[in-house]
Here is the input.
Amino acid sequence: MSRFAEVVVLAADAHDVMAPLARDNDGTRPWNNLFVPIESRWPGSFGRGWAAEFTHRHHWAHLLEYLQSLSWPRPETVQVLIHDEEDDCFGLWMMYDGKLVEVPLPRTERYVAQDPWTGEDSTEMSYLCRTDTGRSIIERPTVDRPSP
Here is the structure.
């Protein structure tokens, strides 16, 4: 299954942490995609971020674990936004107790998907859906997203 995803990382004072991810992979990360800096129009403001596009799920499967292992100067400011091609909106992960945890957004539900190769339900593959669109709700199990 080929899945496209957009990923945005926002974090204060994190240029040094993100700099290696904006360069070719030196073999220390499980993917080869580069994060491109998003610069603020107002120097000195919080508006520092990095964006990347991933074309296959296996290219970003271990992204959250990798990002949470980095030495963030201000981990309380780390926010990761992920929009998988099947999602209705970006999902939000924030650092809590050293882990990147998905923050449940109002009027959204994350549904478990089936692994296309095994046909088994897989919480590693899921869809973030808006529940206020008037469309039919997906008849799939939901992912438990406890409040941080």
